[in-house]
Amino acid sequence: MTEDLSREAADPLCLPHEEAVRLLRDAPWRRFAAMGDSFAAGLGGPSRGYANTPWPQRIASVLGAGRPEFQYLNTGVMGKRAGEARAEQLEQVMAFKPDLVNVAAGGNDLFDPQPDLDAVEADLDAVYAAVRSQGADVFAFTVANVFDTVPGLAEFGERVAALNERIRAVAERHDAMLVEMWDHPVRKRPELMSGDGIHFAMEGHAALAAEIVKTLSERLSKLGAEGRVR
């Protein structure tokens, strides 16, 4: 049976695969790694009319189009805190020798009544520094502000906003690409969340992947304007 992609095809917040491939046609990245928690792993339920493909696989598919040498690694594990991601995943990611890395961690630390965001920032900082020392580019994304539309998560609004500030700070220090999702219009979609009430459904994954592609494309344009390959 052919997968119904009608809603995704008509969604202005999404990018057709062919357009995404075109935008990253000249991308130098051949070894993409994602690490962290369930956001990195790409957890999320299905959405009617959207491809049942999480954002990491979407990005890998775009970067790998027409490139048989392309390789992809995902070490993301549901429930991992930032310190656990650093301790348990960084060595494997470094051994993979990626040239592009996504780091998505810190969300599970927010389940503590008083999260130690200094520790989260320190762990993120160490991970970014390590992969950047190998020459890899890094991108991260902020967590979307769904707290007006998902009442069950309202108590986490201030904590997530504070975590986003730490993510922005670490990204800036390491010249990492930042995908801003906090105020992205997808956050208002009534069917955005999966059944668990925590993760994006595939509608959100498609929108996130589109923003990642745009951010990567902007970095390519900037590097091209500066006369540098990387």
- The arrangement of helices and strands along the chain is HHEHHEHEHEHEH
Q: Helix fraction? A: 40-55%
Distance between the termini: 43 Å
Q: What spatial form do the alpha-carbon principal axes imply?
A: globular
Q: What CATH first level would be assigned?
A: Alpha Beta
Number of helices in the DSSP assignment: 8
**Strand segment count:** 5
Low-confidence stretches: none
Biggest β-sheet strands, sense, barrel: 5 strands, parallel
Supply database-style keywords:
about 230 residues; alpha/beta; Rossmann fold; 5-stranded parallel beta sheet; 8 helices; about 45% helix
Task: Describe the fold and architecture.
This protein is an alpha/beta fold and 230 residues long. The chain is 43% helix and 10% strand. The protein contains 8 helices and 5 strands. The chain has a 5-stranded parallel β-sheet with strand order 2-1-3-4-5, sandwiched between helices. α6 runs parallel beside α7 (157-173). The chain is globular and about 45 Å long.
